[in-house]
Amino acid sequence: MMIHTNNYILNIKELWDDVPEEYLSHKERYENAIKKAFIVLKVLRQLHTGNIQITDHRTPTNVYSIQDGIFRNVNPLLIHIGLFWSTIAAQASTEQQAEWLQPDSSMIGTYVQTELGHGSFIRGIETTATYDSTTDEFILHTPRLSAYKWWPGGLGNTANACLVMAQLYINGTCHGLHIFLAQIRDFDTHKPLPGIKVGEIGPKMGFNTADNGFLGFDNHRIPRTNMLMKNVQVLRDGTYVKPKHDKLTYGSMLLTRVTLISDLAYQLSKAATIAVRYSAVRRQSPIKSNEPERQILDFVSQQHKLFITIASSHVYRVVGLWMWNSHKRVTADIHEGNMGQLPELHALACCLKAISSRDASALVEQCRLACGGHGYMMASNLPQIYAYTTAAVTYEGEYTVLLLQTARYLVKFWRLAAEHKPLPQNFAYFEDYIKKNFEQWRNSPEGIIEGFKAIVAGKTKAAYDTLQCNLRNGREFEEAWNMASVQLTNASEAYARSLLCEVFWKETVQLSTKVSKSLAIVLEQLAELYLMYWALEKHGDLLLYSTISRNDIEALQSRYEELLALIRPNAVGLVDAFDIRDEVLCSTLGAYDGRVYERMMEEASKSPLNEDVVNESFHKYIRPVTMKNKL
Ligand SMILES: CCCCCCCC/C=C\CCCCCCCCCCC/C=C/C(=O)SCCNC(=O)CCNC(=O)[C@H](O)C(C)(C)COP(=O)(O)OP(=O)(O)OC[C@H]1O[C@@H](n2cnc3c(N)ncnc32)[C@H](O)[C@@H]1OP(=O)(O)O
Ligand SMILES: Cc1cc2nc3c(=O)[nH]c(=O)nc-3n(C[C@H](O)[C@H](O)[C@H](O)COP(=O)(O)OP(=O)(O)OC[C@H]3O[C@@H](n4cnc5c(N)ncnc54)[C@H](O)[C@@H]3O)c2cc1C
């Protein structure tokens, strides 16, 4: 059968709620989400087996964005598809993949790593997998409360299998963290298997349909062949065959960090669409007292809040794709046994995941605030987008922890520069900074990019000097590192920003040669706006580390304001171009037809508190008090 994904899925009636999910209980919400998730999964399986075929392009992202509208919150199968499958595909041997990745598999899985006691410091994970050579099995065990797995999405009620990260023990020797496939519930009855204690962790700020769960093992046995064995093996006699790089086990986190950048671009495009469309409809106060009230989008301060969100969505779309291609390249190299590019990819993924999630959550919140009171309504969908987006600052590597990983990489290159050793081309600017080869400031995108590199060099130098000073004062390295950690994270943040500016500007200039002149102008305006915005935000750093002057900063400010005026006529067109359907946007404020007030009233009428003209609590509680002496 040939289908058009959008229309096919949008026409499945059971996928769309009559009652907004905010009115459902925790339990009802989950049950409703599960109903929908399995309808979508069935479609995906039919797509996979070729029973149905798609006539529209961009298949995975299409399905992803449509399912995003179906689940106002989160698809409970997100981790099954996004992490369980992809980890097996990346880390299981060919034979294991052939067995486990069947399209009609009974397994519904999740990715189980974090414990009550350890999330960031994964070497501290306490769950053990001990090899028993007499039975050719691993024994999974949770030695204490802090070792209980806690957080995995879909674990609470949905999953019957999982990939577990545990410390591998063979003959009393610990070989560190490895990944194991464990069945946890009976495929038929869905009851937890003997030795498994599993449940859901309770309501959260968002992700309330993801049934995040807890899990404990009581000497639970799995076959030896359930360890993911593409990169590392345990043989029948207990021989341990080491991986080519000891961080290959962390590969799923690396991949998800890369993927997340694009996902956050998409979340930003939703928030920008809602806030810009609403700002075009909403009128509040005249600008000149004798004129009619103006669209709030005409207030320059409103443009300042919103246009950076549009630009940032494009930045993360472009940089997300750039990272995706790098990941593909490095993975191909790893297949050939060449691990050389892995540290750089890890360092880039860490800081870009950290900054993209932090930017996205701050900008989504800015869009919500830019919609005034109405942005606070759940029906605007902005609170849900915020709750979803802000979680990304924490999961898949907490913000600061990831920035500190990138700092290790920066410090390594600074040390080379300080010792006058050869540097790779992309860090040649460290040497220029040391030699004080400062460029004359240019008020242009290229000049700003150079300025940001000077900030990276200056901040890395400051952090490095502090580190050295702490060492000279007799501190151990780890302690000296901790004492310098504020400066180290600052350096990483600056590094991410310089990458974002450079990649976005270069890619935009290249793209501009391939599109119409009028489109090229708008794309370059957006890219320039992004660079100017951040140059102004970081003007203090530019004053400290580059050759910028006060006059230059004033000129940047004028150009920035000019850009806001230039973008204003295209603002609505720019968000329409994100091409997000109303059914996916789920927002009274952001729908394409602009019927904001009508939609708000329609949504309010769905409130159960409007079902009765007089709520029964009036008779039970209010009247007895207010009418007490008057009856
Ligand atoms: C129906 C649905 C339809 C779907 C259709 C599909 C279409 C899909 C399309 C789009 C999908 C996009 C959606 C994506 C959205 C996903 C949503 C996800 C939901 C949430 C899920 C959340 C999951 C989780 O959170 S899982 C748990 C994650 N946990 C963490 O991230 C822990 C963080 N901690 C760490 O990573 C580590 O502890 C550490 C790196 C901080 C430290 O590790 P350690 O071993 O201690 O190492 P250290 O001593 O610091 O360093 C030693 C050297 O190792 C280097 N290194 C560290 N890590 C790596 C690595 N990964 N790779 C390479 N090298 C690494 C490090 O740099 C050191 O090197 P050096 O040279 O010594 O400096
Ligand atoms: C919505 C959501 C979904 C999730 N889904 C999953 C899942 O599917 N599977 C899974 O396994 N996990 C999942 N997680 C868990 C997630 O990966 C962890 O919460 C995350 O890695 C952070 O770890 P933590 O909670 O232990 O924070 P902590 O590490 O305890 O962080 C607390 C504070 O300590 C600071 N800190 C910690 N270590 C350092 C350090 N070395 N240096 C400086 N500061 C430090 C942090 O910066 C932070 O400010 C999910 C979490 C959330 C919120």
From TrEMBL:
Chief localisation class: other
Domain Acyl-CoA oxidase C-terminal: 445-625
Pfam families: ACOX, ACOX_C_alpha1, Acyl-CoA_ox_N
Domain Acyl-coenzyme A oxidase N-terminal: 7-103
Subcellular locations according to the entry: Peroxisome
Pathway as given in its UniProt record: Lipid metabolism; peroxisomal fatty acid beta-oxidation
The entry's keywords: FAD, Fatty acid metabolism, Flavoprotein, Lipid metabolism, Oxidoreductase, Peroxisome
Co-factor requirement: FAD
InterPro entries reported for this sequence: ACOX_C_alpha1 (IPR055060), Acyl-CoA_ox_N (IPR029320), Acyl-CoA_Oxase/DH_mid-dom_sf (IPR046373), Acyl-CoA_oxidase (IPR012258), Acyl-CoA_oxidase_C (IPR002655), AcylCo_DH-like_C (IPR036250), AcylCoA_DH/ox_N_sf (IPR037069), AcylCoA_DH/oxidase_NM_dom_sf (IPR009100)
Superkingdom to which the source organism belongs: Eukaryota
Residues covered by the Acyl-CoA oxidase C-alpha1 domain: 250-411
Family to which the UniProt record says this protein belongs: Belongs to the acyl-CoA oxidase family.
Name of the molecule in the record: Acyl-coenzyme A oxidase
Naturally occurring in which organism (per UniProt): Bicyclus anynana (Squinting bush brown butterfly)
